[in-house]
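Form 7-S
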Amino acid sequence: MAARPTTDFGKESLFNILEHKTQIAGASFLDLFAGTGAISYEFISRGAEQGTCVDMSQASQIYRKKCMTLLGIDNLTSLRRDVFKFIKKCDDKYDIIFADPPYQLKSIKEIPDLIFEQGLLKENGLLIVEHPDRMDFSDHPRFVETRNYSAVHFSFFS
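Output:
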């Protein structure tokens, strides 16, 4: 399985930020480019009401399904889909959207626009994009801030 999971340090830093920015308990979330699903499981463990994780890798989908069964998670939907096609067809709205695209993906900068154009965030919702340090989202109209944790960079939008 060719995944680049968010490091434990990065994940803990992300959730520390989220605990101060938004209410995770009772929230709905969307995990794009979900890979192993580790971010989704963390959302669920912190009280998120329901979530959806999307990744096109068959190996990742099989792994997520096994983990969900082992962990007894029944409020998470795991989909094997192309993320960009999913975004264009999705009509659900989420409190929190996390996107962790492959760093070599050339269309990373398009992700915020696609999500906002499709109206996937609920009012006062939060979008987080994990990205390499060479990406700069500060010119995006919905950009809030970027937090850097070693090689991990999270940009926040609302």
